[in-house]
Write a structure and sequence with these properties.
This protein is mostly beta strands. Helices cover 0% and strands 44% of the residues. The chain is globular.
Length: 57
């Protein structure tokens, strides 16, 4: 999964490509899990989304 600020952008493939939900190529994964678009601009990170805050008991 690729996210930006907790919003899911798409998924990373084994070859380093990042695809959105419509299988459109939106970027590449760099070393360290950084995701960049076609111009090399940071658009997110590879990994699980941030944990949701726990509800008060």
């Amino acid at each position: 999964m690729v996210d930006f600020g907790g919003v899911r952008l798409g998924r990373a493939c084994a070859d380093g490509a990042v695809l959105d939900d419509a299988d459109v190529h939106i970027g590449r994964v760099r070393d360290g899990g950084e995701v960049v678009d076609h111009a090399g601009v940071h658009i997110g990170r590879v990994g699980a989304p941030p944990e949701a805050p726990q509800a008060a008991a």
